[in-house]
C-alpha cells in the first residue's frame, strides 16, 4: 500500500523511540517519509504547502508518527495540519484530496498502558487522547485505522525496540 509518513518530534536530538520507529518505516517498500522538523526546523510559518499537498498524490495510507507530549500533538504537527490541510483542498465543496485514504497514528508515550485506561490516572484511553486526529480524519472523509501506541517508551531497550519493530511490520505488511 502506497504510504506517506509524516513524522514530528520537537526535540529530535533527544528522541530515541520516534527516531527508531522512523528508521523502521523508512526502509519499507512504498513508503515515503517526511519529517517536519528535518524539513522546517521548528518554524511553523515556512511549510511548503504545495510540496506537502503533492506528497499525498497516489497515496492510500497516511501515517502520523509523533510522541505524546502533555497528552497532545506536537506543535509542528498541529501547525502542519493548519497550513497544509487547507479548506478547498482537504474538504469543502471540491476538497477531496484526502477522501478514502486511511489515517494511521503511530505514537509513543512515557506512561504505562494502565495510565491510559478508565481506571488509570488520566481516566482516558489513548483513543480518547487522540480524538483530534480521529475527528480530523473523519471530517475529511478518511478512514481511521486503530492507532498503534507504544507505552513506557522513554529510553526503550533494544528488546523493546525490537518488539516495536515487529508490531510495525505486522501492521504495515500489506
Ligand atoms: C515535554 C514532554 C512532555 C511529555 N508528556 C507526556 C504525556 O503527556 N504523556 C506521556 O505518556 N508521556 C509524556 N512524555 C514522555 C514521552 O511521550 C516519551 O518520552 C516519548 O514518547 C518517547 O519517545 P522519544 O524517545 O522519541 O522522545 C513527555 C515527554 C516530554 C519531553
Structural features:
alpha/beta; binds flavin mononucleotide; Rossmann fold; 174 residues
Write the layout of secondary structure elements.
Blueprint: E1 3-7, H1 17-26, E2 31-35, H2 36-40, H3 49-54, E3 61-67, H4 75-84, E4 102-108, H5 126-129, H6 131-139, E5 143-144, E6 148-150, H7 158-171
Parallel strand pairs: 1-2, 1-3, 3-4, 4-5, 4-6
Helix pairs in contact: 1-7
The structure holds flavin mononucleotide.
Residues 9, 15-19, 67-71, 108-111, 153-154 line the site of flavin mononucleotide (FMN).
Q: Would you mind describing this structure in some detail?
A:
It is a single chain. The chain has helices spanning 17-26, 36-40, 49-54, 75-84, 126-129, 131-139, 158-171; strands at 3-7, 31-35, 61-67, 102-108, 143-144, 148-150. The N and C termini lie close together (6 Å). Helix 1 packs across helix 7 (158-171). The radius of gyration is 16 Å and the shape is globular. Helix content is 33%, strand content 17%. The chain has one domain: Flavodoxin domain (Rossmann fold), CATH 3.40.50. The model has no long low-confidence stretch (mean pLDDT 96). Helix 1 (17-26) links the parallel strand 1 (3-7) and strand 2 (31-35). The longest helix is centred in the last third of the chain and has 14 residues, at 158-171. With 174 residues, it is of the alpha/beta class. Flavin mononucleotide is lined by residues 9, 15-19, 67-71, 108-111, 153-154.
CATH class annotation: Alpha Beta
Output the structural class. Answer: alpha/beta
CATH architecture: 3-Layer(aba) Sandwich
CATH superfamily: Flavodoxin domain
Helix content: 25-40%
Cofactors, ions, other ligands? flavin mononucleotide
